[in-house]
Amino acid sequence: MELRHFRYFVAVAEAGHFTKAATRLGVAVPTLSRQIKDMEEELEVLLLERTQRKVKLTAAGEALLANARQVIQGFDAAQSQAQRAGRGETGRLEIGYVASAVFAGVLQRHVSRFRRDWGSVELHISEWPMHNLPEHVAEGRIDLAYVRAPVLLPESLDMIDLDSESFVLALHAENPLSSASAVDPRRLASEMFIMPEQSVGTLRVGELGGFSPLIVRQPGSLVAVLALVSLGQGVAVVPQSVMSKVCLPDVVFRSITGLQIRSWLGLVFRRFDRERVIHRYLETVRELSNRSHSA
């Protein structure tokens, strides 16, 4: 017995007439009659009492009707779900990020817009150490990753460039350098540096000041970096966005004279990924990124 048999049977039961049911289904009456007869022979029961004017369900037919409708509805739902998943309208995305993507507001904008447009997609979002993110995307442990660029990527990965921002110096409020509105890199030669996950800002400050930064700690997340600054353990070169997003006792921020290098976020993805739901997310990100750059 096949799904079409259930569809034919339900159509006849609901129409109460073979001719009406055949018209609704777009098949010939003899074909419809033969299909119902095949069902009855296979089940070895009479499903319909036939007269010249109409048909009536037997007790066996009544019992079958509710189940037949459930079978059809279940099949239609499964088919619809598969089609929607194929179009990227449902599914699941695993997204990793570094904390600065949250401080900059980039992750929030992208997730909010994607959920508005594709609310049936299940998003799992988690923070990771930045050095793990490219590898996790390449291995398929996560689908997408927000990183603080520049970062080395395997050949299988690509990246969308997102918002950029300046670097600032985070230092303890009692540090003598905090009295200046902008700090000359040469005055940092004797300072102890707490290194964020993205080291480019710190290294560039050393180049401008003519020294190799003394790295005393590299704790991971920006919050951990600033916590050590708050405890007087050293200074840190961090993205400007943390100034308004992270408030810790005794931490002040100052601009750095002559530091023109910028920090920027990127979204890492697998270059040849065929999952439609991933492409939906990338389309959302590109659209919002283009709007931001053209504003």
From TrEMBL:
Gene3D superfamilies: Periplasmic binding protein-like II, Winged helix-like DNA-binding domain superfamily/Winged helix DNA-binding domain. Residues 1-58 form the HTH lysR-type domain. Pfam families: HTH_1, LysR_substrate. GO terms for molecular function: DNA binding; DNA-binding transcription factor activity. GO terms for cellular component: protein-DNA complex. The keyword Transcription applies. Keywords: DNA-binding, Transcription, Transcription regulation. Coiled coil: none annotated. Belongs to the LysR transcriptional regulatory family. This is LysR family transcriptional regulator. It comes from Pseudomonas monteilii. The lineage of its organism: Bacteria, Pseudomonadati, Pseudomonadota, Gammaproteobacteria, Pseudomonadales.
